[in-house]
Amino acid sequence: MATVWRSFKFFELEVLKGPLSRMEMTSCCYGHKAIFVGDGEGFVYALNRGGTATTLEFSAYKGAVTHMKHIRSRNVLVTIGDDDALNTGIMRVWNLDAVSESAPPYREHRLFNAKHPPPSESIVLRTNYNTELMNSLKFRGRDGDAVNAIPATAFRTVVVDFDVSEDLQNAAVALVSDEIVVLRGDLEHDPTVKICRIRSGVARGAVAFVGFPGAKFTPRAAQGKQHLFGLGIGNPNANANSSSINSSTAVTHALYTVFADCVTVWQVTGAAEYKEHRCDPPFGAAPECCCLTDDGQLVVASATNDQIAVFGSEAVLSPSARTSASLPVFDPTLFGAVHFAEVEGHKRRILAHRSYVVVLTQSSTRSEKFTLQCYDILNGLRCLSRTQESSCTNAAWVIADAADILVVCQEAKHDEFVAQRVMRLVETELQARLEQLFQKECYDVAKRIVRRLHAADASQQMSIQKKYGDYLVSKGKYAEAIDQYIEAIGFLEPSYVIRIFVNGQHTAELTRYLEELHHTRHGNLANRSHTTLLLNCYIKLRDEARLSEFIHRDDIRFDAHNAIEVCRQAGYYDAAIYLAEKYAQPHDYVIIQLENLHNPKKALAFIRTLCVDDAEAILLEVGKDLAGMEPRVCTELLAELCIQWKGPARRLADPAHTHRSSPQDYGFRLQQQPTHHHVQQQQQSRPSHRSEAKDFMHVFVDSPVCLLYFLRAVVESGVLDGGGESQRVVYNTLLELYMTRELKQCIRHQVTPEGAEVYTVEPYERRLEQALTFIEAYAGSYDDYHALALAEQQEFEEGVLLLLQRLHLSSDIMQYYAKRLEEGATPAIRRAAREKLIETCRSRLNRDGTDNDNNSNNNNNNTIGGPGADHSRANIDSSRGKTDESTKELWLSLLSLLVRSPDTEWQDLVQVLQYIEEQDLLSPLSVVEILSTNPRLQLCTVREYALRVMRKDEQRTEAFHGLIDTRLKKLRELHGEIDALQTKATVFQAHKCFHCHAALDLPVVHFMCQHSFHQRCLNDITECNVCAPAHRRLAAEQREAEERHGDPKIFFERLGAAHDADGFSVVAEQFGKCIFAAPQLRKEATLFFGDPMVPGAVSAAGAYGGRSGPAISSEDEDDYDDMRRAAMADGEEVYDEDGELLRPEAIELW
């Protein structure tokens, strides 16, 4: 059946100008970045791809270069040529990466020798496909000598075809004698490769082609050297008894040979064994009518008819298959014909260009007319326009590679070679080719073309799928269109397809598309809406079987929660339960049991099997409903969850993991933006085997009794001990439930289902007893003031009094007991109230004293002698002052109550006055004023108190006078010492150095403190080694004291903390520190002056020759100061390297 071809224009034709159009070629081939040309004089030229410039030129042979091939993987050029009539068929391998000034290095391999001479017959080397023109052409040579021109038919060769494998380990040369010379070894580096000759035992016609497809195979089991058809073919030197495959035969190459009557393939092993196999069907070809594609397939044009056949399986011959980790086993059936096509015309040349087959045919009526066409055999396309295919006249050379096609046409005049017309065909851009296919509605062809291109963009392929699908929809072929849309999943928006098929007439096709959309090979493309739509399609089709089959599949991916919701709404509860169990959706399972199946017991039993995270999330949401249906069981379950969960522990990873997103289970991760609250929860560490009770208190908002039992179980378990502020709400709530007078089973009066277990309400008196025990046992865990407010609200007097005592609220306790002193109460109660009042004030006084002692001890190290001593002391005085103020008010209140009470006994007043006097709580004047308010009070009650106060004041006055006399005496002594130093000479009588304790020798330095040193023993010439540390410490303390005295903030803090009687003493002390005096001026200690703030500390004298002098007088101070400043300004040194003074005149003034 004749092949129907559809014509397109996929190539652009370009005419090349340059040296290539003037060369006399005997062979040519394409390289990676060049065009290689051989001429009749043995020269090889390398031109750029445009043929405009020659990049390399060297002499390869003395005769013609008959054949050549470029190996791109190694940048090696393999040529065959003749040196003379005797030296023919010479193969040379040129290394183009090592080009020298003359010619690149080469390795030579001779095909013939004395044992194997060349064939006696030879053929004319073809230089033009038009035989008539070739017979008339003459080659002038490089010099253009027309006189000595050589006819084109003078070039002859014995080589029909040759090929070299890409790894340069194998080469095959077909001779005119139908013999094939095979070379094995490293052709580029090994000078002694193995050469053997093989002859087909199958073919009867002449050999036309040899070629290595490039693929490698694993050899089949050794079968000796017997040929498949019983003919012995191989190396006669090989061991015929070998039956095992050694390491050298681990890899097998394939060799195609084409004859005039058949195609065969040879299995070439490392042991130089060659096994020939026939390729079906019988198909012969003429020379140059065969080629190998880039995928390793063999294209053969029949010599007897118009058929073109493609041999070889692309699955094992393509470059992608060659990169496989394991080699395929050599199988002769893989090399048979796989495609056929019919191309009319007498074929002269067959080439492979990408996925095209380039065919050159010659007209049977006009020998100079040739037709060039590119065929896409798989898709039935003619890819050259009519103008392009008829542009070849007298075609001489046609070469092609993966980049472009080169056509050389020759023109002759007066039987001489004139010029060549060089044309290049370049394939157009992919988008331009696709547009042509779209115009003719060849969407299926466009899809196959793009799919075949490895470099094609996947989005472009999907765009073709979309256009093809739209075309089929326009033709009403919805079933075929949905197939195209299914192939475009991942690149085409599902909503686009859904809008086309969403009407009721195409539900079946839409169901197919949505099912494929949920398949796992497409990732997470299906969202919740798609799952809902698919399930609704099943429901609309009433196909429960397909629905069940869909949810039971393991190769699909969907949002399980959404599918469960759809099944619930449609009433398919069994399917929803199955999905919840299969995809680990515990929340949905519980919801179905509660809302749809009304089985709370089964839901609670299921929750017990979950981990802490899932149980916690579910009970937080539906715990309130469960508490209403099964109060007791739900409460016990929550108590178990918050004390020690018996089920699986909390998940370590993803602590904020919710119950509705489980990518490990069903492959969908719901994108949820974490809130600030969730982020805080994630940062907190949560127990692994329990939950927080405070999180579940809202569950019992309608069930106070259940909440009481729940919180009591959690608190008594001890898991909340040490919880701090975070657990305080639990203790506060439990205490409130203990004190609540009316505790109800249910606030909203909901009807509890029959058979449900409930708790009994405990009596109010029993709960009050538990409240008292709770207040004492869990002190510090609850909020004391909140508990006090609750007790007062519930009129729980015992609890109020206990809490007041715990909080040390003495004033409130006094108000409580003061009520008993009101008129109308019994004398016994009034007497007990007075005793309680005195005891309360006494306990408050003792507690304040203990607190003040602790504060003093804790701050002792920070306040005594430290830099911030006054500030720390002021803080202590401030806190103590606040405490004393409250204590004073308390005792004032007590004294006022006793004085106003009509039946107060004088012994009570005496006792209170004694405490006030001992602790100096109130001033005597305040006490007298309060006592004077009761006219019935007798003088004997306060007489002893007044006498004791006056005696204490007299003693204090005497102590102050004694302190003043002592300080005045010490001040007079200091003045006397200062006058003696200023008016009298000082005699130094020391004989030993106070540093090294050796006898003094010159130079000696004496200090006014009666310490003498060698000059070499001094740390500083201006300071005494013994007294300097103490002087520095005193100076630092004085500076710090001045800074503190000048800070008004500290002064006012001390003044505010002082008692009424002590305020004047604080002010007097501040005035006594000379706060209004002018600031003192200090001078830095130098060679001549010390620190003026330390009198007598650094006044130094130098003595030479046994002489000693007094300290420098104050009247010479200005002169010495000027001298010191001048010395420092000039940068002069005081001592030399030997320790001698550089300026002794400065010492003479002492």
Automatic annotation (TrEMBL):
Domain of life of the native organism: Eukaryota
One Pfam family, short name: TPR_PEP5_VPS11
Basic and acidic residues bias (residue ranges): 870-881
Subcellular locations according to the entry: Endomembrane system
Keyword terms, alphabetized: Membrane, Metal-binding, Protein transport, Transport, Zinc, Zinc-finger
Protein topology in the membrane: Peripheral membrane protein
The RING-type domain, residue ranges: 993-1027
InterPro entries: ARM-type_fold, CHCR_PEP5_VPS11, Clathrin_H-chain/VPS_repeat, PEP5_VPS11_N, Quinoprotein_ADH-like_sf, TPR-like_helical_dom_sf, Znf_RING
Record PROSITE patterns: CHCR (PS50236), ZF_RING_2 (PS50089)
GO biological process, one term: vacuole organization
Low complexity biased stretches: 852-862
A GO term, aspect molecular function: zinc ion binding
A Gene Ontology cellular-component term: HOPS complex
Keyword Metal-binding among record annotations: yes
Region annotation Disordered: where it falls in the sequence: 653-688, 844-881
Spans of repeat CHCR: 485-635
UniProt keyword annotation of Ligase present: no
Family statement drawn from the similarity comment of this UniProt entry: Belongs to the VPS11 family.
Name of this chain's protein: RING-type domain-containing protein
Organism field: Trypanosoma cruzi
